[in-house]
Each structure stands twice: as structure tokens, then as C-alpha cells.
């Protein structure tokens, strides 16, 4: 039984939950993290698993791993799902490119908007900063839209892969946060295509931004 540690509202935890569903892996989800119902990350029991005190963490037959994208790659590779994570170097590199793009470019672009409009965090109440951040976020979504216009399917090509999990969750967040958004037709089609997958409906487009 795969253990997935992390509160299920976390976007990074939801990556792992979605993939576990796609793989058909029996799993338990332990809600470590912030919130009243969660177990606190400063618990020594959690620190022994991840000294960074961040989620998600998995325990798979005694093997402990943290960092959500590393977990995605491990789970797909360990279950021999080459359809999700190809073996051929160029095909794998294209999947990795979009996973890393989501993490290094798209993810930071929504920070101010998300903390301002969803979390209502103190210090994130400057209208000009919010407008600038929203514009930057939209710029990266235009990059994604152009890629989807090219593939006419999924983010790295014709088939659903690991890259669509972090990117798909990011698309859901973009549609969920109340910013001014441009009409991006390819992104909208992609969102509806992903919504045909049960895993995305359960852990992506499930009411949580």
C-alpha cells in the first residue's frame, strides 16, 4: 500500500494523488500540513521522512521520497508506465521540459495572485502588484496555449503523459483564481479534455483552486 503524506488540498499533493489514480495503485493519504485537520509538519515523525518539512512525501514498500515531480517520475518508472514517462531520450526530455517549465516558470508566476485572492495573505493587497502578477501569469499561459495549438492534444504531444499532471493542475488554478484572463481557446479545449479523466475530476477540477 502506497502512503501519500500531505493534505489533499495542496496542489503538489494532488499531483501525486492524481497519478496514483491513473496508475491504479492502492494508496492511503495522510493529511500532513497546514489546517485544523492536518498533522503538523514539525512533528519529529515527519521530520525523519523529509527534513525540509514540506509535502508531499511518499513511502512505497519502505522507500521514502519527497519532491512532487521526483515522485511522479519514480511512480511512473517503477510501474513501467512508459506511456506516461517514455524511455526514448528525446521523448522523455520533452515530457521533462514541460514538467520543469511548470515548476520553474509557471508556478512562480501565480504566487502573488493566489496569495492575494485565494489565501488572503497579509501583505498581498497591492492592486498594482496584483495586476502585474496577473499579467505575467497570463503571459505564461499564452506560451502554453501556443504549445497546445501546435500539438492539438496534450502538452508534450499526441498522448497524455506525466507532464499533463502538473500542467493540468496549473490550468485548473488559472481558471479558478478570479483574475482577468484572455480567451485562450487551446487551453480551454485542453481543460475540457483533461476533465474527461476521472483522476483529474477527483484531484484536479474538484473545487479546490
UniProtKB/TrEMBL annotation:
Q: Which residues form the GST N-terminal domain?
A: 1-83
Which Pfam families does UniProt cross-reference here? GST_N_2
User: EC top class, in one word?
Assistant: transferase
UniProt KW Transferase keyword: yes
Q: Which UniProt keywords apply?
A: Transferase
Q: Could you tell me the EC number(s) of this protein?
A: 2.5.1.18
**GST C-terminal domain location:** 88-209
Q: Which InterPro entries match?
A: Glutathione-S-Trfase_C-like (IPR010987), Glutathione-S-Trfase_C_sf (IPR036282), Glutathione_S-Trfase (IPR040079), Glutathione_S-Trfase_N (IPR004045), Thioredoxin-like_sf (IPR036249)
Example GO molecular function = glutathione transferase activity
Q: Does the keyword Transferase apply?
A: yes
Q: Which family does it belong to?
A: Belongs to the GST superfamily.
Fetch the PANTHER family from UniProt: DISULFIDE-BOND OXIDOREDUCTASE YFCG, GLUTATHIONE S-TRANSFERASE-RELATED
UniProt name for this protein: Glutathione S-transferase GstB
Q: Which gene encodes it?
A: gstB_2
